[in-house]
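quick one
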Amino acid sequence: MNSAATGTASGFEPFDQLATMVALVAPDGRCLQANSALENVVGLSRRTLRRGSILDWLADPAQLGDTLQLVARNAVASSRFDAHMKRTAAGNGELPVHVIVSQTEAPDRVLVEMIEIEQQIRLDREERTHGLAQANKELVRNLAHEIKNPLGGIRGAAQLLAMEVSSKELNEYTRVIIQEADRLQALVDRLLAPHRRPQVVADVNIHEVCERVRSLILAEFPRGLTLSRDYDTSIPEFRGDREQLIQAVLNIAHNATHALAERIAQGDATLVLRTRVARQATFGRQRFRLALELHIEDNGPGVPEDIRDRIFHPLVSGREGGSGLGLTLAQTFVQQHQGTIECDSVPGRTVFKILIPLP
Ligand SMILES: Nc1ncnc2c1ncn2[C@@H]1O[C@H](COP(=O)(O)OP(=O)(O)OP(=O)(O)O)[C@@H](O)[C@H]1O
Ligand SMILES: [Mg+2]
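structure w/ adenosine-5'-triphosphate:
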C-alpha cells in the first residue's frame, strides 16, 4: 500500500493507541497534532482541532497558557497540574483532567498530555486491590496447604479410635471429629482447587457458557425467578477454559440467587445475563482493542455496605453459612483469562461485570 501517502508526515499515529489524550502544540497553544482520544473527548475532528488552540478546550486555560510559556522557555522541563476540559460534543459539563506538559526536542513544540482523573483514580485503585488480592490469595493458599496434612492425620487417628472404642457415646465423639475434619477438608479443597487442575484451553463461545449457567440456575429455581438474556451474538469465540468460565459465572449467579431469596419467594426476582463488546477497554493495567463484557445483573437488595470493597477477598462472606470463596474463585478463573471482574451495587440493582480480552 501507499504508506508514505496515507501516514501523516508527523508520525503521530502511535499516539492513537493511547487511552490518554495527547496534543503537540506551539508555545502559544496552537494545536499542531492531536490523537484520537483527544478527538473523542473534545468531539471535534482532528482537522478542526488542528485549526484551534488547546486553550479553547479548557474551562480554566490560564494555568496551561502560563505553563506552555515556561516549558517552551525551558524555565521548567515539565509541569503537572489539574484542570477541567470542556466537552463540546456531548455538550455536558466538564471533565476533570490531570495535565502533564513536557518539552520535545524542538523548542517551538510542546507536548501536552491529559489524563481523565476518574480514570487515573480507577487505575490506581485497580492496581492497589490487585496487589492486595494476590497477597491475600497466596496467604490463604499456603495456609490451606499447611492445614491439609495434619487434617489427614487427625481424621485417620479418629477412624482408628472409632474402631477401638465400643461405647456408643465415645463413638459419637469420633464421629464428630471425622465429620468436622471432612468439612474442613472440603473447604481446603475449594481453596486449592483453582491451582490443582491445569487450564484446558480451547475455543470458547461465551453464549454457550451463559446458556449452561442459565439451565443450571433454572433447574434450581424453576419458579419465582425470571432469568432473561440479552446477548450480542456477534461476539467472536476466544481461547479459554470453558469449565472455568462456567464455574465463575455460576458462582456469581448463585450469589445473586441467594440475595434474591425473598424476591424469589414473592415471585418477582430477575436475573439478567448480558453480553457486549467493549472497544479500547482498559483493565488489569492493560489496554485491549476488543473485550468481552459479560454482565450478571440482579434486582436484589445489593451487596452489604460493610463488605462491599472486600467481597473478592477470600473468606469474606455476608451471608449465613457462606464460606466466602465463590467470588475469590470466580476472580481467579477470570484472571487466568487476563480478565477482571467489577461490581456495581445499589439496592435493587447489582451488576457483576466480567471483562475478558477478545482476539
Ligand atoms: N448479587 C449479590 N447481591 C448481594 N450480595 C452479594 C451478591 N454477590 C455477592 N454478594 C455478597 O458477597 C459475599 C461474598 O460472596 P462469595 O460468593 O465470595 O461468598 P459466599 O457466597 O458468602 O460463600 P460461597 O460462595 O463460598 O459459598 C456474599 O456472602 C454476599 O454477602
Ligand atoms: Mg457465593
